[in-house]
UniProtKB/TrEMBL annotation:
It comes from Cohnella zeiphila. InterPro entries: HAMP_dom, HATPase_C_sf, His_kinase_dom, HisK_dim/P_dom, HisK_dim/P_sf, HssS/ArlS-like. Keywords: ATP-binding, Cell membrane, Kinase, Membrane, Nucleotide-binding, Phosphoprotein, Transferase, Transmembrane, Transmembrane helix, Two-component regulatory system. The chain crosses the membrane at residues 12-34, 49-68. It is found in: Cell membrane. It is an enzyme of class 2 (transferase). The keyword Coiled coil does not apply. The keyword ATP-binding applies. Residues 136-326 form the Histidine kinase domain. It comes from the Bacteria. GO terms for molecular function: ATP binding; phosphorelay sensor kinase activity. This is histidine kinase.
Amino acid sequence: MKTRKSLLNQYLLLHFLAATLLPVCFLLATVGVFPSRVPSESSGSSPDALSLLVFVLVLFVAISWIFFGRIRKRLRSLQETMASPSDDGLPLPIRTGRRDEIGQLEESFNRMVRELAESRQREREEERLRRQLIASLSHDLRTPLTAIRGHASRLNKEPLTPAARDSAASIDHKISFLGQLVDNLLSYSLLTSGKYPYRPERTEIARLVRRSFVDWYPVFESMGFQIELDLPETPLHWEVDPSWLERMLDNCYQNVNRHARSGKYIAVAVKPDRIEIRDRGPGLTGDSDGKGAGIGLEIAAYMAREMKLRWEVVSGEDGTRVEIRK
């Protein structure tokens, strides 16, 4: 839409004046309309007319230079503003002035910045509500789960038929799974809201892996797993948060317990540049007796990113391999 101060109108006006004045000045210089102090026998033109022609040419060039220079300056200012984001990652609004094409572009840019800021604010609010909902659900589910676990434990102490005992064991297994899922949901909420602070320190990796596997060793052994633990005798130190790394490993062990029981195999190895956890289950995309591995591995992946570690999960029909690389 055209405006009262359109750059196109100014451009056309400038060239109209040039197209009008230059021929007139050239005509005056040719016919010698202006009187000359020193007559010239070889030409009918006068020095004053020629001077006027030169003056008009110089004036046209100067005005054109100023005109396009101002346009270039405004465009560069807009470009610099777009390339200089604020603390929240969004560009700063630009100060608008004239109501021409560049002014319209500046207003459109400012409108885009406002819409982006509003969208970012809506995303933050939705994320806050989501975290609050997850935290509330996690807390609200703990009480009934604890009560159900107590009743299941009491039921196991009663004389039961083999079928009833299998059902009670299945109930206990599902309750444990739900409890771990609730813990993972709460941990994810705390992590993403910054309430689970990251405190890096120089950590001896082999010792940490051994300590994290101690509680799980009898679990896997009772299920008849073949266990391979390869830990170096030479100390290896990483700059990580030990509690975060232990939580990552614990989530990996939980994943093996839920999804790889049929493989009856777990291998944990510590190399100079990585930690490996392997199983021979059906893989995360295959059939397994537990669901919901996503939240636990997502927590581990989030922690790895925050600690500047590389997180890789390779899963197939022959098992799953998790690597935590330095």
